[in-house]
Write a structure and sequence with these properties.
alpha/beta; 17% strand; 13 helices; two-stranded antiparallel ribbon; binds beta-D-ribofuranose; 38% helix; binds calcium ion
């Protein structure tokens, strides 16, 4: 089996950190680069957190390119209410030994995609600013992108506003670029990621897996779990971003439907809404495979076996 080359674009973030660990442990994936973007917290902090996670899992061979410090056309909205001031509050990760690559996110994406003998899969799990910049600055490299599997959006309600999911809300113009890119795109939205909650059983299993599992369990408890209880009344926190990575490892964990997704950039109450044409009423051609169901058990099995590898 030749591992699938992937670039993970992240704004760690507790669930981003677990997604990164899953990607690093999964033998099905070749993590060619990590790129950081401002989102949950500032770019400086998301970059530092990405370096910490990679250092912890011993993947100092993976280049980290710092990307956009702000959305394409908006003031940055962050999520300290969920992830704390550092972006990873409550997690006990040592200082990073890895330093950022000399190349920024777009340059690094261009080099990896341009030089890869196999088409590369992009897995953005934060605001889509870096990916939009990359697609616009390097249109010819699109032909070597296999697919985009993103965590973001929702067919149903949002989480940061009643209408919008956080990643798309933060940079709706960037999300629009991605959905309109013509690339094969899978939207792993809140409709399914909110099922991926780490409850007592999953935490116990994680803790039994060794050091990566213990850290992942730590990330999914304390601060992050309390924030989800306080903000959304959830008994256990969802590991949103890891679902997108697991869906690249094994697409069958998702049930998807082809549909047209348009991103609302003008609405006052609906900024960042992913308007999903579930019934095909617009006549617009489908531009995404949208996740509508998750095999929760299969997702967690992929997470467990990947973390065990670290
Ligand atoms: C998304 O928002 C962020 O807070 C999480 O990391 C995830 O990517 C969920 O809406
Ligand atoms: Ca994220």
């Amino acid at each position: 089996m030749v591992p699938e080359p992937v670039i993970l674009d992240v704004d760690p973030g507790h669930d981003d950190a677990i997604a990164m660990m899953l990607a690093c442990g999964a033998p099905e994936l070749d993590v060619c680069a990590i790129t950081s973007v401002a989102g949950n917290v500032s770019l400086e902090k998301t970059t530092r957190n990405a370096l910490k996670v990679l250092s912890f899992v011993g993947r100092t061979d993976v280049p980290v390119g710092a990307g956009a410090a702000a959305p394409l056309a908006r003031v940055l909205r962050t999520a300290e209410h969920i992830h704390g001031e550092s972006g990873l509050d409550g997690a006990d990760l040592p200082e990073p030994v890895l330093v950022p690559d000399g190349r920024d996110a777009v340059r690094l994406m261009a080099d990896v995609v341009g030089e890869s003998p196999e088409p590369v899969t992009l897995i953005p799990v934060g605001p889509l600013t870096n990916v939009a910049n990359f697609l616009e600055e390097h249109p010819r490299l699109r032909q070597n992108i296999r697919r985009v599997v993103l965590m973001g959006g929702s067919i149903g309600p949002g989480n940061v506003t009643p209408a919008a999911e956080f990643n798309v809300y933060v940079d709706p113009e960037a999300a629009r670029v991605v959905f309109e890119s013509g690339l094969p795109t899978t939207m792993v939205g809140l409709d399914v990621t909110r099922e991926a909650t780490a409850g007592p059983e999953e935490l116990e299993r994680l803790r039994s897996l060794g050091r990566a599992g213990e850290v992942a369990a730590g990330l999914a408890t304390y601060y992050y779990a309390r924030a989800y209880r306080r903000t959304y009344g959830l008994a256990a926190p969802p590991i949103h971003d890891a679902v997108a990575v697991a869906a690249v490892v094994e697409p069958a964990i998702l049930q998807t439907r082809s549909m047209r997704v348009d991103v609302e950039c003008e609405g006052v109450l609906t900024r960042g809404e992913t308007v999903c044409d579930v019934y095909g009423v617009t006549g617009g051609s489908p531009n995404a495979e949208v996740a509508v169901g998750l095999d929760r058990e299969a997702f967690f099995e992929i997470l467990f076996r990947s973390l065990e590898e670290i």
